[in-house]
Amino acid sequence: MDTQSFRKHAHQIVDWMADYLEKIETFPVKSQAQLGDLLKQLPLAAPKQPEAFEHVFEDFQRLILPGITHWQHPRFFAYFPANSSPPSVLAEMLVSAMAPQCMLWETSPAANELETRMMEWLRSLVGLPTNFAGTIQDSASTATLCALIAARERALNFKGIAEGLFDQSRLTVYASQEVHSSIDKAVKVIGLGLQNLRKVPVDRHFRMQPQELLKMIQSDRAKGFRPACVVACFGTTGVGALDPLNEIADICENENLFLHVDAAWAGSALILEENQHHLASATKFDSFVFDPHKWLFTNFDCAAHFLKDPQELQRSLSVLPSYLQSAETGKAPEYRDWTIPLGRRFRALKLWFVMRCYGTEGLKQMIRHHIDLAKTLYEKISESETFEIASERNLALFTFGLKPTAHESLEVMNERNLQLLETINREGRIYLTRTEIAGKLVLRFSVGQTTTQARHMDEAWAAIQSAARLLI
Ligand SMILES: *Cc1c(COP(=O)(O)O)cnc(C)c1O
Questions:
Q1: Mutate to test the pocket of ligand 1, among 145, 177, 265 (most ligand atoms within 8 A of CB)
Q2: 126-136, pLDDT tens digit by residue?
Q3: What phi and psi values does residue 201 have, to the nearest 5 degrees?
């Protein structure tokens, strides 16, 4: 494709993008595709001869679009948001044209330096101390994996990276029962073994119980194990529970354990002054991650990972073959040594565009608005005759279900809630997902789309009520 055709098609596609965002509400939120729909229609091999771009683009609209779940839809209330915004999309367009590979300072100096400054902006925005340094990871899962590597090597005095884990004493890791599956995955991947991941019981608000944590640490020490790391979760995936960070941080300090805070979703809400008391003990954290790609209007992927002592991670991961050496080696942060892949996308640009186009006040307003919208629906559901709240609202997330009828078994109730969920999603006006609370299947309601307004919440309430009426 020559640049003249590129220019023509690029203009068409920008128009398509703007039209898409304008008419996004006409689509069902959740794709109504059936399993195999697309595969049936795709040829088995790549075309031998070139095809006209018009034809490719038509097929995109005809074949691909029906199989898309519209995450930027204002009535998307499933999972957690993965919100985006026009400034973020514009930055990604520029990045995709330049397609730089930002593994060293020299391979794109601006990418390296912008990343440094953007992490400083975010650090101050969420209220982390200035002695933390940050980098952009592809996901919170990767940040957690890296944090656990640093924790492991601190505990092993950097013997793990040299000798492996043979003959080392058994390290233990602690996280609440409600913690995200990425912790389990990281523990498996870095060779600590799932048996050595302790799941600390939670209180009735689904928060880690610090006293139980302390007991588990002491009991492991008594058995000759070596407690190494605590992963606290600020905003659990099921119900959004906020682990008591300040109490956990005190225990980690006294017990000399590495503390990683997984705030993938809820971290964005820390930009609000009213939430910053949660970070009163942040000087005691070792590692902290949150995802601007979830709730800070920056499209996937963008996970902000902060470390108090990045040296520990760098020492654990650093590689410097001669083909990567340059005159600036060691003078600028070597972000490739803070993570697993060598290649790095230029992700800082979208953060720069987003923070400048909205301003920190604009970002705060949008997040406060989401929390207020969630509050309003939460109140309506609490007062309803048909539904009940299953777990209290944390920020912009709560769970609910149908009110049980007299003597209804858990099984029957779960079946009714599942039918409610499926009816809602089939109808397509809104998209919700579920979780389980003590064996009870409940529906999650999570607000965080960039364009969600009060009227979308009214439509959501109407969709929930009409689905319930269909079931009765
Ligand atoms: C979403 C989420 C993750 C995973 O985030 P990725 O960036 O997709 O890896 C981890 N922990 C919590 C608490 C989450 O909500």
A1: 265
A2: 999 999 999 99
A3: -60, 155
